[in-house]
Amino acid sequence: MVSFKDWQNLDLRVGLIKSVEDMEGKDKLYKLTVSFGEEEKTVISGIKLDYPNKEDLENKKLAFIYNLDPTTIAGVESQAMILGAINEEGKYKLVFMDDSLKEGTKLE
C-alpha cells in the first residue's frame, strides 16, 4: 500500500515532447527531450515498439512523473518517467493531455 503522504510526494506534470531520437542498438528505446515550461528533461522510454512513428509523439503533451530520481538507462541519464498503461492486447498506451494544459502544469 502507498500512504497518502507518499502519494503527495509525487510530482506529476504535463510535459511537451520536443524531440524523439532513436538510441543506437536499442530496438525498444527512445530518447525524449521533454519541456516542462522553464525546464527541459531527458526521458528514456521503452515505447518504440508501440509508437514506431516519432511524429505520433513529437509536439504532444503527456503525463510524466517529474520528480523521479534520475536513473541511467543504456548509458543515458533519464530524469523523469512517462505515464501509460498496458491494454488487453499487451500494447503500451500513453496518457496524452489536452492541448489547453500548459507544459509544466501539475496534475492533481
Which structural traits does this protein have?
108 residues, mainly beta, OB fold (Dihydrolipoamide Acetyltransferase, E2P), 5-stranded antiparallel sheet, two-stranded antiparallel sheet
Model description:
The structure is a single chain. The chain has 108 residues and is mainly beta. It has a single domain (4-94), classed as Nucleic acid-binding proteins (OB fold (Dihydrolipoamide Acetyltransferase, E2P)), CATH 2.40.50.140. Helix content is 6%, strand content 44%. It has 1 helix and 9 strands, in the order αβββββββββ. It has one helix at residues 4-9, and strands spanning 12-23, 26-35, 40-45, 61-65, 71-73, 76-78, 81-82, 84-86, 92-94. It has a 5-stranded antiparallel β-sheet with strand order 3-2-1-4-7, with no helix packed on it. Strands 5-6 form a two-stranded antiparallel ribbon. Strand 2 and strand 3 form a beta hairpin. The protein is globular, with a radius of gyration of 14 Å. The mean pLDDT is 95.
